[in-house]
Structure formats: structure tokens, C-alpha cells
From TrEMBL:
Annotated protein name in UniProt: Exopolyphosphatase
Species this chain originates from: Mycobacterium servetii
Domain Ppx/GppA phosphatase N-terminal: from-to ranges: 18-310
Pfam families: Ppx-GppA
Length: 314
């Protein structure tokens, strides 16, 4: 029996929707969409959501609710991650989601999940199509507010959620356009400090394959493969050699926002923060080569969204 289910992932930078048919054959996409709403704008500095950020998120969620109705989704699970964990006025956000989603599916409301839960959902979504012979996997979900690092094979063996997302790092350290060498050095220092803690908890030395998910990773793959425009089908399960990855990251870090925005595969809402994401990826790439001998990144278009839908499929 096939069920039509939906997952919504509301992060620091984007809100994403997956409507899928779920049966014995796994997931079949009906509709998949991303909107950049920057819900976490200023949360690192102020500790609360800005009213205009909630308004942008409400507008996108209203459109998603209409899609749930149009496609006949039976159930939906909406999860909120890093920014919502940190915001003191998150009750206003939850009330908004209950109002918008509840009008379509009674009782539906967003839920905030822990970094560990986020890591597990990301891992489940990311490795579903990968050959088990390539395990153990280290899955890196690089978001706007946090980066989840997850090690596992059949299931999660260890995970850590580090507060080094692309939005958080940009707002904290990368103020100039392009960023100065001093700002980049400060950002690297923050990333290395957070990774030192993360890699004490997650023994990446055991990993054989590095899998990257979410917008920074997929955009880096598109640029490394010289795509004229973003092509989800070609990006999914693409492989990026370490030398190519580092070259793309270095180029992005040194660019102005306007130069990044002019790149064909670049989403307009990502151009101002992807430099921060590139710094995280560079530091991770160096650690994984040194600790596990991994010199290649596998990029998956399937991630926490797929994990969210599978979590309500029973």
C-alpha cells in the first residue's frame, strides 16, 4: 500500500519541502522544493527571531501548505533545527506553524529536534541509496546554524552537532565583501575549535566514505563539475576529488557576493553565506584526509527531508 506523506525541514537559512509516495519500494518524489527564508537572521547575536524572518517563513510555509492540499498529502512532519533551538521567542514561531499547517492537516505543528535527532534523520536520508560495501560512512549535513557530523553503517554509531553553520559563521566573522584575510583566519579558528570537540566524539578514523548533504555541499559539487546551471539529477551521488573541492572553496572564499551570485548554479539566497560554508568544508576535508585517508566527497541530494518522511512511514 502506498501512502502520500510529507516532510518539512526548517533550518537557519532555508525551509524545504518533500512530498513523496512511500511504499515497499521506498520513496518516490512527488514534489521537492527549497526556499531561502533566513529564519536565523541575527539569532546568533540577538538570541531571538526577527519579525521579518518569521514573516518570510510564514509566506513560504503558506505556499507549502497549499501544495500539501493540492497533492493530497495524508500526513506531514515538520522539524525545526539549529536556529529554533537557540531562539528565546520560538513560541511565536510554533504558533505560526500550527496556524498555517493546522488549516490543512489538523493538529500539525513544527517540532524542534535535538542535534542528535537531526543527525540521525540526515544519516538515514543520505545513505539509503549507497552501497553498504562503502561503509562506514561519515555524513556531514552543513546547515545555516549548525553542522551535523555522523558516523555509521547500518545505523548511527556516533554523532555531534557543531555550531558552525554557514549563516552563523558569516554573521560572526565574515563582515567585509570580500572577507579580509583576518576575518577568514578568525572564521577558521572558530571552525577548528568546534571540530576539535566534534572529532573527539565522532571517530572519523573509522570511516571509508565521506557523504555531504544540504545546499553548500550540492552547490560546491555543481561548481566543481563546471555546471552552467544547477542540475539536481547530475549532482545526486556525484563525486568531487579533494583537490577540486579545495580549489572551489578557495575561489568562493575570495569572491565578492556579486561574483558568487553571478555563478550559474548559485541560489540567490546562498551567495552571501556560502563563503562561510566553504571554510567549514575546507577544514573538514583536511581533517578527513589526515585522520581517515579520505580524499573524495560524495554528494547526496537526499538528506534530512528523506529521513523525516521515512520517520512517519512506520
Amino acid at each position: 500500500m502506498v501512502s502520500r506523506l510529507a516532510g518539512i525541514d526548517c533550518g537557519t537559512n532555508s525551509i524545504r519541502l518533500l512530498i513523496a509516495d512511500v511504499g515497499d519500494g521506498g520513496l518516490r518524489d512527488v514534489h521537492r522544493e527549497t526556499r531561502i527564508v533566513r529564519l536565523g537572521q541575527g539569532v546568533d547575536a540577538t538570541g531571538e527571531f526577527a519579525p521579518d524572518a518569521i514573516a518570510r517563513t510564514r509566506a513560504a510555509l503558506t505556499d507549502y501548505a497549499a501544495l500539501l492540499r493540492a497533492h493530497g498529502a495524508e500526513r506531514v512532519r515538520m522539524v525545526a533545527t539549529s536556529a529554533t533551538r537557540d531562539a528565546v521567542n520560538r513560541d511565536a514561531f510554533f504558533a505560526m506553524t500550527a496556524d498555517v499547517l493546522g488549516a490543512v492537516i489538523p493538529g500539525a505543528v513544527a517540532e524542534v529536534i535535538t542535534g542528535a535527532a537531526e543527525a540521525e534523520l540526515s544519516f538515514r536520508g543520505a545513505v539509503g541509496e549507497l552501497d553498504s560495501a562503502a561503509a562506514p560512512f561519515v555524513v556531514v549535513d552543513l546547515g545555516g546554524g549548525s553542522t551535523e557530523i555522523v558516523l555509521g553503517g547500518d545505523g548511527v554509531a556516533a554523532s555531534h552537532s557543531a555550531d558552525i553553520g554557514c549563516v552563523r559563521l558569516t554573521e560572526r566573522c565574515l563582515h567585509s565583501d570580500p572577507p579580509t584575510s583576518q576575518e577568514v583566519a578568525a572564521a577558521r579558528s572558530v571552525v577548528r575549535e568546534r571540530l576539535e570537540v566534534a572529532l573527539r566524539e565522532v571517530p572519523v578514523e573509522e570511516a571509508r566514505t565521506w557523504v555531504g548533504v544540504a545546499g553548500t555541499m550540492t552547490t560546491l559539487s555543481a561548481l566543481a563539475h563546471d555546471m552552467a546551471s544547477y542540475d539536481s539529477a547530475d549532482i545526486h551521488l556525484s563525486r568531487v576529488p579533494g583537490s577540486n573541492l579545495l580549489a572551489v572553496c578557495e575561489r568562493l572564499i575570495g569572491m565578492t557576493r556579486a561574483q558568487r551570485a553571478a555563478l550559474g548554479p548559485m541560489h540567490e539566497g546562498r551567495a552571501d553565506v556560502i563563503g562561510g560554508g566553504a571554510i567549514v568544508v575546507e577544514e573538514l576535508a583536511r581533517e578527513l584526509r589526515a585522520r581517515a585517508g579520505i580524499g573524495e566527497l560524495v554528494v547526496s541530494e537526499h538528506d534530512i527531508l528523506d529521513g523525516i518522511v521515512l520517520s512517519i512511514a512506520g
